[in-house]
Structure formats: structure tokens, C-alpha cells
Amino acid sequence: MPNNSPPPAPPLDGIFQALADPTRRAVIQRLTAGPATVSELAGPFEMALPSFLQHLKVLEDSGMVSSTKKGRVRTCEIDIQNLSAAGGWIDHQRAIWESRLGRLDNYLNEIQSTEND
To answer: Origin, by domain of life (predicted)?
Structure first.
């Protein structure tokens, strides 16, 4: 019986490492508008194609970008599920800190009100 479950999401370390570089973040931003060829993605950057391809490899290894080749044209697209994994982690951390700051705010308000009494 074939395994129809989706592959596990890549580790967050790889996702955040990929997002640490401004070139790779720009590629992700461009791909949110839709698939693009390697030539289209590389166009805005002043770097040799082999250097740009290294950036694409990091993005593909992180699971955020996939590519297909048809003839000599390689087209890339974003994998929103893996990008969402990073967003989910960030949202969880934000919720923890907002809760802590809310409790601190309540505590400080209690102290201030008892000092005013």
C-alpha cells in the first residue's frame, strides 16, 4: 500500500538559514507573485549565474522552493507549506512574549494601584 502522507516539513534551522540572506529573501518575495524561471529570478541580481544557483540550492534544500525543468528552462515556485512552518514558529514565539508582557503589565498596574491607595 503506498504511503500518501505528505513528507515531513524540513527543520526550521534550514528555513531560517535560507531566510538569513537578503538575496534569498528577495527570491522568496518574488516567488510569492507566482512561478518564475531561473533567468527571471537571477535578472535583478548583479552576480554570476553559478553564484545565484547556489542561492537557489539553499532555498530548495530548505524545502521552501521547488523547481521543474522542461527542456532547457528551469522554473521555480514557492512551497508555501514549508514557509508557513517558519511563520507558525514565529507566531508561537510572539504569543508567548505577548502573554508575558501582558502579565508584566498587569503586575505593574497592580503595584501602581497599591502605591496610590
So the answer is: Bacteria
Q: Can you give the residue range of the structural domain that contains 29? A: 12-116
According to the model, what pLDDT value does residue 111 have? Answer: 84
User: What are the backbone dihedrals phi and psi of residue 37, each rounded to the nearest 5 degrees, phi first?
Assistant: -75, 160
Q: What percent of the chain has pLDDT over 70?
A: 91
Residue 90 has pLDDT above 60, yes or no: yes
* Domain harbouring 52, CATH code: 1.10.10.10
The three three-digit cell numbers of residue 99, written as one number: 502573554
Q: How far apart are CA 70 and CA 53, in angstroms?
A: 17
